[in-house]
Amino acid sequence: MLSRLVLVSASALKSSRPLGAGLVQASRSFNTSPQTLAPVPPLPEKGGKVRHGLIPEEFFQLLYPKTGVTGPYMLGTGLLLYLLSKEIYVINHETIAGACIGIVIVYGIKKFGPSVAAFADKLNEEKVAKAQEAKDLALNNLTQAIEDEKKEQWRAEGRQMLFDAKRNNVNMLLEINSRERHHMVTNEVKKRLDYQIDLQNLHRRMQQEHMVNWVEKSVIGSITPQQEKESIAKCISDLKKLAQARAAV
Amino acid sequence: MALSFFDQFMSPTYLGVPLVALALSLPWVLYPTPSSRWLNNRLLTLQGWFLNRFTQQLFLPLNVGGHKWAVLLASLMVFLITLNMLGLLPYTFTPTTQLSLNMGLAVPLWLATVAIGMRNQPTAALGHLLPEGTPTPLIPVLIIIETISLFIRPLALGVRLTANLTAGHLLIQLIATAAFVLAPMMPAVAISAAVVLFLLTLLEVAVAMIQAYVFVLLLSLYLQENV
């Protein structure tokens, strides 16, 4: 609600001629222009190139078209000589003291500069490496999870085959079982029937034996003693005849 | 000639405008503000690393109540080191050669530690006046001595820093003048004086850093006693 008020008053103030331009600045509407530059622009990775540690490379490039490579150095030398000869810069004891501290500073920078820079870079590298490691770990975990999932899906497909095999197995077992039972039934029935056959055989044999015995008994009983004597006499006469026949041969 | 040696210690003015405020505030320009970026340039990384390590080392023996002083002592250390090191350049003014500045830093900070000790734990603070295991007849004398030592602390802090830096700067000036004046007359002596000057410069670099560190370390020790 207040922003509408601001907009209305801003347009009203802009239209008022004498103070318009000056008040536009103060009554600019908020949060509409990209002045905050919310995605921060990236910094350059390395600092600007400098020559001799002090003078930017752009200065040499600036003078190169007109004065070539030695231009800036001639300028520097000329400047120095001008300052010295006109005694704008007076050489006194401070110069010697300054030269000493200058030697110490330059030596320090030349000796320890690269190692300190490498250390600073290493600090940043470690930061990046830690974050990268976390990212890589997460990435690896997720890829692993994807592969595991694919494997599980493959296994799920394979399960159908497993089910088929198991079903076949079960069917075979059932088949075997039923056939076994059939056999058992057949065997049992055969056993019963065999028993009956044996029983009948036994009966017939017994009847036969009984009849034979009865016939024998009746025959033996019908033989009178006279008949027995006659038969025995006949047998003896037969035997004698045979013996005579034999002796004659 | 002898008087001009002390010109370097005069508070700088230019056309009547005192520049000492600039001398005290401009060294801070050398340290970039920590940015909200995750990765910084080398200077900022090193600055952050150094401040972290220094504060961690300094406040290791202090209990948590003393950690309130972390910002003050760390910034004091950076301030003193910068002032001292910048003062080694030629034609510069070193504010820490002024007794007024050093006493102005030492007395309030020391008084703050004593006041904190007296307010929070008066018995323990007063107990520091008598070291353990003193034989009984020595107790009154020792209390007097310890009180004197207590009140001499701010004086010692301020004067130590002032004297070290002033003496160093004065020596540099003297030996440089000797080398400069002798150069046309006796070049060999001038060269040896220059060598001495070089070694002295190395010493002064060390002294500059050590004195700042000692100042802050002693303050942290006084804080440790009282917090």
From TrEMBL, chain A:
Subunit b, of the mitochondrial membrane ATP synthase complex (F(1)F(0) ATP synthase or Complex V) that produces ATP from ADP in the presence of a proton gradient across the membrane which is generated by electron transport complexes of the respiratory chain. ATP synthase complex consist of a soluble F(1) head domain - the catalytic core - and a membrane F(1) domain - the membrane proton channel. These two domains are linked by a central stalk rotating inside the F(1) region and a stationary peripheral stalk. The keyword Cytoplasm does not apply. This is ATP synthase subunit b. One of its GO terms (cellular component) is proton-transporting ATP synthase complex. InterPro entries: ATP_synth_Bsub_B/MI25, ATP_synth_F0_suB. Belongs to the eukaryotic ATPase B chain family. Residues 120-148 form a coiled coil. It comes from Albula glossodonta (roundjaw bonefish). It is found in: Mitochondrion; Mitochondrion inner membrane. Keywords: Acetylation, CF(0), Coiled coil, Hydrogen ion transport, Ion transport, Membrane, Mitochondrion, Mitochondrion inner membrane, Transit peptide, Transport. One of its GO terms (molecular function) is proton-transporting ATP synthase activity, rotational mechanism. Pfam families: Mt_ATP-synt_B. Component of the ATP synthase complex composed at least of ATP5F1A/subunit alpha, ATP5F1B/subunit beta, ATP5MC1/subunit c (homooctomer), MT-ATP6/subunit a, MT-ATP8/subunit 8, ATP5ME/subunit e, ATP5MF/subunit f, ATP5MG/subunit g, ATP5MK/subunit k, ATP5MJ/subunit j, ATP5F1C/subunit gamma, ATP5F1D/subunit delta, ATP5F1E/subunit epsilon, ATP5PF/subunit F6, ATP5PB/subunit b, ATP5PD/subunit d, ATP5PO/subunit OSCP. F-type ATPases have 2 components, CF(1) - the catalytic core - and CF(0) - the membrane proton channel. CF(1) and CF(0) have multiple subunits.
TrEMBL record, chain B:
The keyword Mitochondrion applies. It catalyses: H(+)(in) = H(+)(out). InterPro entries: ATP_synth_F0_asu, ATP_synth_F0_asu_AS, ATP_synth_F0_asu_bact/mt, F0_ATP_A_sf. Keywords: ATP synthesis, CF(0), Hydrogen ion transport, Ion transport, Membrane, Mitochondrion, Mitochondrion inner membrane, Transmembrane, Transmembrane helix, Transport. Its main location: mitochondrion. GO terms for molecular function: proton-transporting ATP synthase activity, rotational mechanism. GO terms for cellular component: mitochondrial inner membrane; proton-transporting ATP synthase complex. Coiled coil: none annotated. It is found in: Mitochondrion inner membrane. The chain crosses the membrane at residues 12-31, 69-89, 101-118, 138-159, 171-199, 205-223. It is a multi-pass membrane protein. It holds the Pfam family ATP-synt_A. Belongs to the ATPase A chain family. Component of the ATP synthase complex composed at least of ATP5F1A/subunit alpha, ATP5F1B/subunit beta, ATP5MC1/subunit c (homooctomer), MT-ATP6/subunit a, MT-ATP8/subunit 8, ATP5ME/subunit e, ATP5MF/subunit f, ATP5MG/subunit g, ATP5MK/subunit k, ATP5MJ/subunit j, ATP5F1C/subunit gamma, ATP5F1D/subunit delta, ATP5F1E/subunit epsilon, ATP5PF/subunit F6, ATP5PB/subunit b, ATP5PD/subunit d, ATP5PO/subunit OSCP. This is ATP synthase subunit a. It comes from Albula glossodonta (roundjaw bonefish). The lineage of its organism: Eukaryota, Metazoa, Chordata, Craniata, Vertebrata. The gene is ATP6.
